[in-house]
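Model it.
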Amino acid sequence: MEVELGGSVALVTGAARNIGREIALTLAHAGAAVVVNAKSSAAEAAAVVAEIESRGGQAAAILADVSEPADVTRLVAETVARFGRLDILVNNAALRDEAPFPELTLERWRAVLQSVLDGAFLCSQTALPHLRASGRGAIVNIGGLTAHTGARNRAHVITAKAGLVGFTRALAHDLSSDGITVNCVVPGLIQTERAGAEPSHRAARVTLVGRHGVPDDVASAVRWIAGPGARYLTGQTLHINGGLYLG
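Modeled.
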């Protein structure tokens, strides 16, 4: 096991499947102890922990709704109680949803913004004392492609993910004196498991590398940003999209 993150503790929200799962596995492979957070997918979160432990790593699964302040307080407290510190926060939790704008209800609008933006706010603020104490604290926000390109039927998702870019830049200023880096990683067309049909905005787009990405493409970028080699990087938005913007 490689150890550039040895001695670090990472909390990855929304880590039971897809990109979040791969980020948790990758950070663990780099030597970090990892808390695998999920809202309700207990079995899947436990499977991620089991995979990490089977490779000789340390991990724990903690169920919590990141849009609920009490849940986030418990999530961070249990993380520190279990592993003694917190160095890396990956704000990945999000809701996938599509709706034509005339049919988009306030309830659905708020649910997405709460998951993405309230979740990132609550987790970052609650984790702050521990990230300050770390001396190598890193926050990585996971953005979204359509926040930069636009797309149909995703006004709520696009608004939330675009908000993460502003949040990243704001925190980079606010937390720089604490030695905490804050960056945003934006996945492009990534092959993930979806409950419904492929979103329409993905079909018409092509990449220069000739393929869609896989979760490891994103996780590898997060690993670098969270590690010692990226301490001079903050306030940035890194697009992992195979040259999609240049096609």
